[in-house]
Amino acid sequence: MASAPSKLYADDVSLLVVLLDTNPFFWSASSLPFSKFISHVISFLNSVLLLNQLNQIVVIATGYSCCDYVYDSSSSANRSSGTGKMSALSIDLLEKLEEFVGRDEKLLKKELEGSTASSLLSGSLSMALCYIQRVFRSGPLHPHPRILCLHGSQDGPEQYVAIMNAIFSAQRSMVPIDSCFIGAQNSAFLQQASYITGGVYLKPQLLEGTFQYLSTVFATDLHSRGFLQLPKSVGVDFRASCFCHKKTIDMGYICSVCLSIFCKHHKKCSTCGSVFGQAQSEAASEPSKKRKTGDA
Amino acid sequence: MASGQVIKRAKYKTSVKDPGTAGVLKMAWDRFIFTPNHPNSASKLDVEFRFIKGHKNTKEGSNKPPWLNLTNDQGGSYIFEFESYSDLHICRDFVGKSIGRSGETPTAASGKTDASLPDEQISTAELELRIKLLRENSELQKLHKQLVIGGILTEAEFWATRKKLLDRESSRKSKQRVGFKSAMISDIKPATDGRTNKVTFSLSPEIILQIFAEKPAVHAAFLSYVPNKMTEKDFWTKYFKAEYLHSTRNAVAAAAEAAEDEELAIFLRNDDILAKEARQKIRRVDPTVNMEADQGDDYSHLPDHGLFRDGGKDTIESQYELYRRTLAHDLNRHAAVVLEGRTVVVELEDTRTVAEALAKLKRVESANEDSDGNANQGISERISRITEIEDLQASHGPPLAPLCIKDPRDYFDSQQVIAIKVPAGAEGKKCNLSSREAYGSLRDSISLTKQMGLQNPVVKTRDALQVFNALSHDISRTKYDVGKNPQDSVLDKLPSTTKEQLLHHWTSIQELLRHFWSSYPITSSYLYAKVNRLKDAMSQIYPQLEEIKKSVPANHKQHVSVLVRQMHQALDAAFQHYDADLQKRSAKSSERPNGYV
After folding, report:
1. For residues A96 and A82, is the Cβ–Cβ distance under 8 A?
2. A282/chain B closest Cα distance in angstroms
3. pTM
4. ipTM
5. B490-537 pLDDT, tens digit each
């Protein structure tokens, strides 16, 4: 496939980067077992490859403490040939995935106690964007890239800045981030990601039909999307995390110079170093400092 | 109000001749009351300022006592004699303010009944601007009528959020003052009537001011001669006689006339004051300019640069040099005056006042020069160089501060440290599995898939159909059409009355909410009252929206309910905040009974 003449890249050729959530803490609590889920995903990937001969797929596993490429359809390292029961894709992917989970476990140093079990979404988003940048720079003709997040674990507010940076980077390079969220609550990060980059955010109601959702909503290439009516998210959770304690907040203080977000009043912006005006007096009520910050 | 009232000892006089009744004059913001010292005296006064049309007072330094004369609208007047000029000035300023205020209240009175309103002094110009804006924008007018006349917002609050609108409007007006005309006064040509030998010059205060500014000697002469030594008319006759002699270019005749009449000589001789000023100016010239070298370029020894002026060109003998004027001098003087600009702001009516005002200004200038000397001069020079001409400048944007991230590495490193360090005790569901078990089960399911192969079939037909129906049902619902096409808005489908109602409610809700949220945090009882007013107004709109929802025909009900729901949500958020704040406040006030509000 790599040898295909580049002029054959028409406007309906896709490069699909799938970010696969392999957070063991999520899957151990999920109503849909991972084995079922992965067979939905592999079927979907196969069908995407079948849609166009030049379509390309990259799968990045998003673990708890690390993330890595687990499959690349253009890579020559794909050794195995398909058997009657399994396609070559699934054999390679599953093998790499197993290796990855082993590595991820080794990297986990301490037992997590009562903390959120969020995956390293910022890492895998960055990796996907790096891969896409490489494709962009390979020449004037390339498949149209898009990112699909198959995510289930909840947001890690501590990754807010990194994820937002990745989102804006994707927006700049016109890469839509689609998200199919299979967790219990909506993910604010992915909602924002899809909203900002013009992708589709979907939260399947019926997890048994995941494949149907994937193939109906996410299989079409970007060109054909212009002719389709894809589901739109009804609302987006625009809440942000503060830069100081990484908490998700409804109301906060914003640096008037660099727009950094804080949950408490600071004398000085930790991002740009701007010094804010002094609060009037100790007797003044706490929220009045917010005004002051705005004036700085 | 800080200067709520003024109380001064004064004498009330019914006329200038009247010796006056001693007593106490008390001025409040809307009236003044005079109480005579002698309780039986009839000259008790209580007059409202709105009946007062004007005020005059005697000048300090004149030989009259400090009098203040207030004229009422029937043409009568009240004269007060004060003990000192400082008392007089205080009262005069107060009266000036009060008259100005009572003049404008009738137009703005309707909404300004709230006594707790912070003291506001708006100029008539601003008021006119507001009225103009309201007249031009019917939507604004409607809103203004509802909110301000309805007593929900005060006039000041309403306009505070529209400062930008007002600024834009007012910036269109020119702030430049009218300067002197660049035409020279020597161009005032005498009108001759042909039959007699009479020459008529016409004068206007404007011209007189210019003459005074350009010819300080004439100015000085006017101040010293008029009206003690000669009448104003005589003065100007003499002046123009001199001018006429100049224009005839007959220096010999001029010299002869000057010998006879010493007053006339003043106008004919070169201006001493000007010469002095010129010498002073030369001293101030930048020392780097080589005046010696420039003298070579001077061709002013040719009279009038060889130009014809006033119809003739002649050479004059040196003994009459004194009475000779050159065009270059006149031009330069005129140019200097025009560039200096009009600095006297007086009504141009009385020649005497004009002369005096100009003299005062000159005194101030010279005093400044004397005291500050050279240090000041360098500064003023620089200032004049960088002085901006206002109407040639682009409007100023907000001041900018460049963003600088101090040390990017510092920032990103700190971010990373925080990102890696998972905050303990964060919210969210706790994982009750150990990591070992979790990874184990995940690995198991992978190897299971590896052995068993993919699920077959991947998805059950029933599930697939259900998903498919759900997805396409969502898509076909109107919710997804709404707002897709900017041309056909839902509002256009609605009956026009409903549409207008909805839009109006929406704008008023927006206005109310803006004021509501900007009042937080509540730091004063004034804000507290305002928030309560706003809350009440908003809760009145709430049922009105419900009414609209009920009244629309069934086929539009869904659209309207979507629109109304958004407005309700916005209002609900405000109510919620109000209640939460109230709770917090009551909790706080129980701890701290002496707190604000």
Report:
1. no
2. 13
3. 0.45
4. 0.74
5. 667 777 888 888 888 888 888 888 888 888 888 888 888 888 888 888
